[in-house]
Design brief:
- The protein is mostly beta strands and 724 residues long.
- It has three domains: 308 residues, 5 Propeller (Tachylectin-2, Chain A), CATH 2.115.10; 85 residues, Immunoglobulin-like (Sandwich); 275 residues, Glycosyl hydrolase domain, family 43 (Tachylectin-2, Chain A, 5 Propeller).
- Helices cover 6% and strands 40% of the residues.
- The protein contains six helices and 45 strands.
- Strands 20-3-2-1-21 form a five-stranded mixed sheet.
- Strand 25 and strand 26 form a beta hairpin.
- This is Family 43 glycosylhydrolase.
- One of its GO terms (molecular function) is hydrolase activity, hydrolyzing O-glycosyl compounds.
- Pfam families: Glyco_hydro_43 (PF04616).
Length: 724
């Protein structure tokens, strides 16, 4: 009898463990114990090009760090499943049986217009790999839809009362706003068996799109995006799935930038929920965390992805499911690129796939005699060795095995790389040695934003030109500047001692105009003057842009000058207040036809040097040239051999330009501070390389006649200097 009871108890516990749950707890009546799931599947699309409007998959072990599967290529052909040739906004759900998966997507190609689609695609799978699909055209299937303009962002949830799968989505009819509707799918999940009904009724009848429902504590929480003034993510809550949603009228996104495509999932370890959304004007995702679905904090610093998703969703999965996905779409190359060890410059890891050689650049001071790359290990992946290794003695061989695939061996090298000097994406650097603090500062454009759309400036400090500390945002256009809110580009700065007190004058580009802000310290806070300093073309100029300021003080006269321009180079003397130009001093100084932008002036041994960037910052051939003059506003003489820095094919360094120059105080020792494409991915990114740049420093040297020696761009960079 005892054995029978034990057997019955065991069977009962086994049955309990098999009970199903929905995606991230979305809508199922019962739930599997959280320990069943140990990984996460992220499904997403990547952009508005037709090739980008397709379903892609990524994996994570912890819900924070994701790696794209299939080299970030589609896992399902849009042409085979859609009526338009493209799909967007994928949502994935685990069925109530725990083993069937449902996915719904917008059937749409954005190039055809934002009001061009009338359909969605329903997909069904039992293994996450093979999917059956059906197109559902709302306008064709249901009467009374003649003025339907679009069908967007469908999602699925299991209705335990109806024992059916409910699909909810937004539709726009004629001049009405977008509204969220719902309908039930048929048993086969190949079509809709009920006429769409409105699910949420906005109190102000405003537009609502991108609905996402999650069940918590017996209540359905509907996240959605509002449209129009003050657009963002809000939430409505109901005790019932299909009615009674009451708006909680506050915005939940933790950014001032436009957002869409919210997705909520519950962490497998029970430590709360993730709300993520697409910051679509910035080309990035933001992750936030909450315990109560009311208060959210940004956790972007804990998140990593080797891809740029657009509007997607995350599904908790088992180790067995993750292993099947890795077996199908994982690669040994990607496993090696997943290194996350402390001290790594992660965005600069480079893999030679032909020779199976991985190069791991590390920050200064990293202990390479006992360094562990810490590769990300998904189920089904084994990498050996797994302990710290001595990389000072040379390359280490690593063996990678993926379930169902032949083992592969890689040669791994780890070495210090001082370039890029700053961690992350930055460009257009200016550099300053501040007498007040005895430190060096770099003032760059904040990069990595699609179309150069950054809106804030930061600064970084160092005592040795190698170890740089992020000093944070020093000027935020939306918050600190009244006359411009966009395109924060190419700043420059100068230190002046006025009446015994140090002042810092910071010239910056905003909305293709040049402003000036003032501070008492090199790290701010900076106060904008309240109006642009330069907002129009100089006399005689009709084309180009008023951007890229450079400020210079003549050591012979102590007069200060400002230079600027894209397509032309202008210069003018600054008044002693440093926030206005001296009337009648503006001159056009364009040296020759190679001038594009990024003028920079400095003085050495009686000669005034001027540098500028040639070509386009999106071009691999972006480079720096120079000329000389006998005065700050004198005619610039261009030497025959005047190339300062250009691409280095041997090192795969491209797009070297928009520079500044630093002289070590009291010494004839000089450095070139410039930006380049991100290494190694930039050269593969097309035009996007032009806004995914990084700041580097290399030695600048002169010949005995004062001419500049060409600078060879390097990954190694410079050695730390000691001012004492």
């Amino acid at each position: 009898m005892k054995n029978c009871l034990l057997l019955f108890l065991g069977l009962f516990l086994f049955a309990c463990k098999q009970q199903p749950t929905s995606s991230a707890g979305k809508g199922a009546a019962t739930a599997i114990p959280e320990t069943k799931y140990s990984a996460y599947l992220f499904t997403y699309f990547t952009g508005n090009q037709k090739s980008e409007e397709a379903i892609r998959f990524a994996l994570s072990n912890d819900g924070y760090n994701f790696r794209a599967l299939n080299n970030n290529k589609p896992v399902i052909s849009s042409a085979q499943i859609s009526s338009t040739g493209g799909v967007r906004d994928p949502h994935i759900l685990r069925g109530a049986d725990g083993k069937t998966f449902y996915m719904v997507v917008t059937d749409m190609v954005s190039a055809n217009g934002w009001s061009s689609n009338r359909a969605m695609v329903l997909l069904k799978s039992t293994d996450l790999i093979n999917w059956a699909s059906s197109v559902v055209n709302i306008q064709k299937q249901f009467p009374g839809q003649e003025n339907l303009l679009r069908v967007w962002a469908p999602q699925t949830i299991y209705d335990p009362s109806a024992k059916k799968y409910m699909i909810y989505f937004s539709m726009k009819h004629g001049n009405d706003p977008d509204k969220i509707y719902y309908a039930y799918a048929n048993k086969e999940f190949t079509g809709l068996e009920t006429t769409p009904k409105q699910l949420f009724f906005s109190p102000n009848n405003g537009a609502c799109i991108d609905g996402d429902i999650i069940l918590k504590d017996g209540k359905y929480h509907l996240f959605f995006k509002t449209e129009g003034e003050g657009a963002g993510i809000k939430m409505a809550v109901s005790d019932k799935l299909t009615e009674g949603y009451v708006l909680q009228d506050k915005y939940l996104q933790q950014t001032k930038d436009p957002v869409e495509g919210s997705g909520v999932f519950k962490l497998n370890n029970g430590e709360g929920y993730i709300l993520m959304y697409d910051v679509y004007t910035k080309g990035k995702y933001q992750f936030t965390k909450s315990q109560d679905l009311q208060n959210f904090s940004v956790i972007d610093q804990e998140v990593s992805m080797n891809f740029h998703p657009r509007h997607g969703t995350v599904l908790p999965i088992t180790a067995q499911e993750a292993e099947a996905l890795v077996t199908k779409w994982g690669s040994a190359d990607d496993a090696m690129l997943s290194a996350r060890g402390n001290g790594l410059k992660k965005i600069n890891i480079a893999l030679d796939t032909v020779n199976k050689k991985l190069t791991l650049p590390v920050k200064a001071g990293t202990n390479l005699s006992a360094f562990n790359p810490e590769f990300m290990l998904f189920p089904g992946v084994t990498i050996n060795p797994q302990t710290a290794q001595n990389f000072t003695a040379g390359p280490i061989n690593y063996n990678v095995t993926i379930a169902g695939k032949a083992p592969q061996t890689y040669q791994v090298v780890a070495k210090e790389a001082h370039n890029p000097a700053l961690e992350g994406y930055y460009a257009d650097p200016d550099v300053l040695y501040a007498e007040k603090t005895g430190k060096f500062y770099i003032y760059p454009t904040s990069d990595g934003f699609t179309g150069w759309s950054g809106t804030y400036f930061k600064t970084f400090s160092s005592t040795n030109l190698v170890d740089w500390q992020d000093e944070g945002v020093i000027l935020d256009l939306p918050k600190d500047v009244s006359w411009a809110k966009r395109n924060a580009w190419a700043p420059c700065i100068i230190e002046k001692k006025i009446n015994g007190q140090y002042k810092y004058f910071y010239y910056f580009t905003a909305a293709q105009k040049i402003g000036v802000a003032v501070a008492d310290n090199p790290t701010g806070p900076f106060v904008d003057s309240g109006k642009p300093l330069i907002a129009a073309f100089p006399e005689g100029i009709k084309n180009g842009q008023q951007i890229d300021p450079d400020v210079f003080t003549d050591p012979k006269t102590q007069k200060s000058y400002l230079y600027w321009g894209n397509g032309y180079m202008a210069g003018a003397e600054l008044n002693t207040d440093m926030v206005s130009l001296k009337p009648g001093t503006t001159k056009i100084l364009t040296p020759d036809a190679t001038f594009r932008e990024g003028a920079y002036a400095f003085y050495r041994n009686g000669t005034y040097y001027f540098m500028w960037s040639e070509d386009d910052t999106r071009s691999p051939n972006y480079r720096v040239r120079y000329g000389t003059a006998t005065s700050p506003l004198g005619k610039i003489k261009v030497p025959a051999n005047n190339l300062v820095i250009a691409k280095n094919l041997e090192a795969s360094i491209y797009g070297t330009g928009h520079n500044a120059v630093l002289q070590i105080p009291g010494k004839d020792e000089w450095y070139l501070v410039y930006h380049r494409f991100n290494y190694p991915k930039g050269i593969t990114m097309g035009d996007a390389a032009g806004f995914n740049r990084e700041v580097c420093i290399d030695k600048l040297e002169f010949n005995s006649d004062g001419s500049i020696k060409p600078v060879i761009s390097t990954h190694e960079g410079i050695k730390a200097i000691n001012l004492k």
